[in-house]
Amino acid sequence: MFDEEYRRRYVFGCDYGTSDFKYGPITQGDKPLVTANRGYFPEKSIVSQVLGVEKEVVVGKDVTLFLGAGSELSTRLVYPMRSGTIAKDDERAWHVVEELTRYALSEFKPGGFGFKGFYVVAALSATAPRYMYEKMLNIYDKLASEGLIHSSTIIPQPLAVAIAHKQTSCVVVESGHGNTQVAPISRTPIREAIIALNRGGSSANAITAEILKDAGYGDLVKEEALVRKVKENIGLLPLNLDKAIGYARNNPEEVRAVYQPPGTRIKIDLGRDSWTRFLIGEYVFNPDHEIFQSYYKRGMPRPSDTKVGDVFFYGTLSIADTIIQSVEKCPTEIQPLLYSYIILSGGNFSWQAPPKLRNIAVDSETKLMHELREKGVENPNVKLSSEPQYAVWRGCIVFGYAVPSSYAWSWEKMEGWYVHRR
Amino acid sequence: MPSRSILMKRVEDHFISKGYRVAEKSSADGFIKFRRHGEETVVRIIDELASRDEMLSTIIQSALDSGGGKIAYVSIPMSLVSRLGDYAFRVNKIGVLVYDERDLVEIVEGGVQTPASEEKHESEAAEKFLQEKIEALENLYTELTNKIATIEARINQLEKQSSVPKQETSASQPVETIQRTSGRKTKKPETLPSFIEDNPWVELLSNKR
């Protein structure tokens, strides 16, 4: 009884996202704290001067002290989860994960008496290979010996999203920077039906960069952050690409895109090429459309089929086809239930739908429902996660709050509480 | 749990390290009186196996010490403080020392009840103060009694549940049993985030075995 009360009081969620690390205990409320999921490996002398302590890697707010180091930045700044997974031997990436976790837990460690460590629930990509679980638990072992962790568990991010949305039967489509996971859930993730795509927000950035080059702004594409802003501000998602392009050619002024990054003199005007705005959104959903072949021929890398650990990642399979393939791997009886609640999570699904382009440019929910219906799915229901950046952390907190302390970790099931030795 | 003599030694060390000296002590009665710069501090010890009456009596004595112008402390086992909380002690300026097998930690600092230490007050003010003190003690007593009653009720309920034969629960009243079990498991703390409330996963995950 006391253990249960203690666990509920000290549940701590860790969401290792591709760009941000979201963390905090159950007492944090509805929103976790957010810090960039990155670490900076400085020259020892700089650290000792600025922080007064010798540290191999700097994480959290202090990283900003080291930005602006010019050409060294790319080698010294490490984003461990950039592609959703960390290579087994990528020591620097694992070091960042360890330091970030230590940083987060230490921030909330209560002083005084009676604290025996947090019950940590971490979320990893559904496609994370087993060695990532082993590495994470090794790191947690180390942190447990420092009194920060009592027990820990790791859950797939799509499960956390489903939990946060209070849905026990659904399909979660989670799209990050480097990859996309489609995971059917029926009271538990149906692991054999999870399908992963080798593309995410970075692929949409790539097509945006090609469009900018073709429009005469090739000098701007070296800055990834600027390309991302252009994507977010001028990218459109067509309901039907061919019809949208036809509309744009007949009504060029209606779809004309001009974007000026705030605080700069740069002005990007796509002019006659404004129809290409529709390619950006379409590429996320269907990169195999014939219109993209010319870009591939000119050197833009095609998202390739690949294998990481035991997981196969498809390159150009459309989102609708991926969902259908995934659901059809599940028992027939639950398939209608799964189609009746599809959750889209991740910034890759946030597309503006200007009122003047009604039924031409749409949001992700409308697009996907349209495509699923066209492929014969009856009554699909698609929801865009309202606060996708917090959903995984919330799911972690609910999981830690509810699962009894006596439910021990099982490598077979890949779930349960892993009790660390202290 | 440590013996009373070991516990008293720890209490002594704790206060001596803060510059106090022992003025009087009784292992049988479980108290130690310290002095420092003219101020008097009384620490009373509650054993882990103390009865409800013994516990209340000790706490009330400490409250009276505090009301009498002394700095009062109670030393209580960890299992007790986690059930009672420390709020009532804080508002009454009664210090709390928590102990387990290895450690003794001060979680609430004791304080002087200023009005009681000032004998210059007129008799009306003193009377008012005493009335407030009695009222505070009564509230503290009621609060503690309620908490103990709740704990006892929960223990009784758990004992009843564990003593019910399996055949009865599974065969005769399945619906009622599920409801009772789920009610206990999904009981929420006071400050529960909104995304946990009415979340069907809480019930589902609570049944993991």
UniProtKB/TrEMBL annotation, chain A:
This is Actin/actin family protein. It comes from Caldiarchaeum subterraneum. SUPFAM superfamilies: Actin-like ATPase domain. Coiled coil: none annotated. PANTHER family: ACTIN. InterPro entries: Actin, ATPase_NBD.
From TrEMBL, chain B:
It comes from Caldiarchaeum subterraneum. Residues 159-193 are annotated as: Disordered. Residues 159-181 have a biased composition (Polar residues). This is Uncharacterized protein.
